[in-house]
Amino acid sequence: MNILIWNEYRHEIENEEVRKVYPEGIHKAIASFLEEHHVETATLDEAHHGLSDENLNKTDVLIWWGHKAHDEVQDEICEKIKSHVLEGMGLIVLHSGHFSKIFKSLMGTTCNLKWREADEKERLWVVDPTHPITEGLNSYIELDKEEMYGEHFDIPTPDETIFISWFEGGEVFRSGVTFKRGKGKIFYFRPGHESYPTYYNKEIQRVIKNGVQWAKRNHAPTHDYGNVKPLEDISEK
Amino acid sequence: MNILIWNEYRHEIENEEVRKVYPEGIHKAIASFLEEHHVETATLDEAHHGLSDENLNKTDVLIWWGHKAHDEVQDEICEKIKSHVLEGMGLIVLHSGHFSKIFKSLMGTTCNLKWREADEKERLWVVDPTHPITEGLNSYIELDKEEMYGEHFDIPTPDETIFISWFEGGEVFRSGVTFKRGKGKIFYFRPGHESYPTYYNKEIQRVIKNGVQWAKRNHAPTHDYGNVKPLEDISEK
Amino acid sequence: MNILIWNEYRHEIENEEVRKVYPEGIHKAIASFLEEHHVETATLDEAHHGLSDENLNKTDVLIWWGHKAHDEVQDEICEKIKSHVLEGMGLIVLHSGHFSKIFKSLMGTTCNLKWREADEKERLWVVDPTHPITEGLNSYIELDKEEMYGEHFDIPTPDETIFISWFEGGEVFRSGVTFKRGKGKIFYFRPGHESYPTYYNKEIQRVIKNGVQWAKRNHAPTHDYGNVKPLEDISEK
Amino acid sequence: MNILIWNEYRHEIENEEVRKVYPEGIHKAIASFLEEHHVETATLDEAHHGLSDENLNKTDVLIWWGHKAHDEVQDEICEKIKSHVLEGMGLIVLHSGHFSKIFKSLMGTTCNLKWREADEKERLWVVDPTHPITEGLNSYIELDKEEMYGEHFDIPTPDETIFISWFEGGEVFRSGVTFKRGKGKIFYFRPGHESYPTYYNKEIQRVIKNGVQWAKRNHAPTHDYGNVKPLEDISEK
Description:
Chains A, B, C, D: Residues 2-215 form the ThuA-like domain. Chains A, B, C, D: This is ThuA domain-containing protein. Chain A has 237 residues and is α/β, with parallel strands linked by helices. Chain A has a domain at 2-111 and 175-222: Class I glutamine amidotransferase (GATase) domain (Rossmann fold). Helices cover 23% and strands 30% of the residues of chain A. The first copy, chain A, is built from seven helices and ten strands. A nine-stranded mixed sheet of chain A has the order 2-1-3-4-9-8-7-5-6. In chain A, a hairpin with a 4-residue loop joins β7 (160-167) and β8 (172-181). In chain A, α5 packs across α6. The termini of chain A are far apart.
């Protein structure tokens, strides 16, 4: 499978604390545990954000991490990604990617939520234990410190709700949710604030690996849309 | 309730056959059976397509009919309508409105389908018989002649599927489907090609009346989103 | 509306601590805030558990609280209740009623869950803020002390997920969920362990009041099932 | 994979017309195209209906065809099958199996529908074109003659709606629907009246083959249910 990992890649460059956690960037940390696939990475400040048509055409699953520069993603490139998703490319949106242009345009809502940075314990409870994305997990994943995201999360009713998070400070969040849009499968997965070593956690890695398998590009033939002939000539009857 | 009926209003002006069916426009035909509400109408060729903020602010349900000039609806006005829907205004999208900018931007998909103009009989079967939108109906609604719309209909999985249509020529279609987006409720209802007297049908009128009641503006308080304090001071523990 | 509140009514009789909280039984405590309706109550140890056909025929919504004597509910009476639900009677299942025969037979699953009695704080977060059952609520309901129920909750995917609970000890739970079965609407609502004064909480009362409105008996005509004639004589074609 | 095909096997014995279509029984016709798996068959009139615990324990997917003798399936055996489904065994229910005890007990509804035997053309339209069950299909499957099943179909809202049928005589039907119950996956697939050669159709075979792959036994660990300890000792706080 061809995986393309896109990272905004600003925090790691501008903030020493973040760089200590992800010295080569979040994209490289994610790439390191997906090596059974052919993995490429792309970042915001590359030409065309590193997202050429050639690149996207061969991508089976695009993984997206962005946070503070969503607005700098060009509208035309967002439109292009959206077309690829609707044509069958899988999309995994991580953490603060909930506010990315691509996710919001596929959801049709504000994707708003509550948040707090307070080094809180998070427990991601599995609520769909037979879903392929939860394969190999126990009842929950525990992260010692993470940013909190809380309900209400303004998304359409998910096709499937897979994880619900508990946070030390008193909130809950639908942390793993899936959506079909066109021929593409979308998995939103909450954890992964830039200042915590979340993507080194083996269970989080397992979920992303499972997610990649689940979301893989769909090669179903495109339906014939538009003006069609009848089953039999109605006028003959 | 304040209902605003928006109509493209081009077919009726440009095509004599259509004008015979809807001499004052489809919007006026729909307005005539919603008179228990305060009803206003707006059309594409009015200034700002007849859709001022003042107008939308007081609208409980917006009904939308458009067909051949979707592209002429200005993007900023479409964005404005979307904001109002997400803030609680109900939206009923009729027939060829499936391809309108507002519907596509709320769905996130192409909203593509099959179609055929062949004067076919249509039967709309009720598959959710206890839904408020089907109140007062029998097992199905029959329309002697309509344009055919056929699956696959490229929309997200609906929150609720209420009607499934049968067409004489051999196709089926999810003809009545609902979606929640933000605080707004959306009802897509298939029938109503401009050349047929569909909106004079008493059962079709009943569905639209029921739909207006179901979709009425939601006045739920907007959730507090953004940065929040914890339930109790975590640092004290 | 005619509301029938069914209570096992054993804890309150056998346990002094519980009797202090609900001196006249949980059923009477619930009845006291539904007085705008015509309310009757029934308990396990009455003849036929207080559930005659006459009684059920006129009931718009049945509220069910049971805990330690689920097995003593007679199978035939459970079957009768189920028929009434499928014919349109609303059903609100409270707390430990998740293990009642009636709920399990409508769900088709074990309805298993985790639990703990440890005087924990519970926060019920609203995840469907425009649902009629949440009308009048803020972002969450807080209960100072409750029994914990935790995921995984072995139910079918709910039609709607309205509340998700956070518990002090580290768990989450889908606390408010709805299901349609036949013509009946079912609302499962988690809180209400017998040793806590939960049903005196004004917001919990509000949810149950809203639930009663939402679940009210459906008078939609029963569909004609069975052997039917074709739309037109096929053989003539 | 171990597949167990259960057939009532009465029509084929009692009715010469049916026997001409399926000389060795519907179960043998289905077995013949699943030969890449280890396939066993069982029928109503065998001891314990051919369904021992030993048999079910090793079964990955159970396929069920029954029609006129649903009542003769013993309740205890139905309960046993249900337990196996909830523990992860896949279940494919065919055609008139909608009225089987096992399907009704997993659904919790009457599973009622309309029907007509009139040699009608059926078209099964794919409405979820990227679902694994539709892999390899075109836009629809056409059957020249089948029994008609029509809406309303009294089932819970399906987790996924995959096929919708069109019938010559004027009806529609949700012909392919899926449900999760416990750890088991259930696929209901409509076609297959005993008097038509439906199970020799290559596309119908393809759907059943795909369905078997999709429904295969889930080996996810069973969640720990019941009384649990807290995340941390609450009393220490």
